[in-house]
Amino acid sequence: MRHPLFTVVGLAVLVGLAACAEKPQVAGTRVAGSPAYLGTGNSAYTAGGWKAGDATSWEDGMRARTQSGQNEYVRSGGR
Amino acid sequence: MARMKFICDAERCIECNGCVTACKAEHAVPWGVNRRRVVTLNDGVPGEKSISVACMHCSDAPCMAVCPVDCFYRTAEGVVLHDKDTCIGCGYCSYACPFGAPQFPSSGTFGMRGKMDKCTFCAGGPEAHGSEAENEKYGRNRLAEGKLPACAEMCATKALLGGDGDVVADIFRIRVTRRNKGSEVWGWGTAYGKPSSGSPAPKASKS
Hints:
Chain A has helices at residues 4-18, 55-70, 72-75. By secondary structure, chain A is mainly α. The longest helix of chain B has 15 residues, at 165-179. Chain B is globular. Classes of the chains: A mainly alpha, B alpha+beta. Chains A and B meet through helix 2 of A and strand 8 and helix 6 of B.
């Protein structure tokens, strides 16, 4: 029969190393914001030409704003 | 869904800093923090080039990869934003960013580094669109108002283009075709990947 000291030391090592186990990691549930097409709910500062809550309308509005505001070839009639 | 991107046309930028001023004013950005800067190469030498630099909202953003508290997220429009309530101001994102976008306000007795601040593409933060809390932390949410970033809309020479990547790329392409020079799109390869990456190289044609 083994010496009881071996059993005690073995148990102590097991208990001691138990704290070294890796904790399970779960990805956080961070809020990633809502889509821009939902609007701010404040019409006072909202640009016209699109309907809040309609993704297609928002995209079309942004596209039109980009072309009219930043593409001078469109603004000058392609000259 | 639209994929928001910036293009800076180095042939047009006149280093007026209008974009920087527009950004500071629109979002009440504090002293010591510049979400956007104008960088001039070969300053004073004939042929110098200026470019307006800010967060490019990269496709595979290195800041997102290195953040130890995972405070970054990407919106449905492809804008890279962060949550200031989660940020611990460690500065890892600053080391990782190839554009020097992350900024850290110095506050407190010993000028301690505060929570990170950067360009939001005028898309606010995780709070409700247009809310007081969002405005306080991140500035105005122009995208939810149906507007484009203030820097791009304010640019006098339209050197800085901001909006849906396909649309701004088309505008830039028309310019290059008309003037027949200046086709280099600064920062796009770094931010959105080289055209060849991920796709097989075109086969050489035999003649």
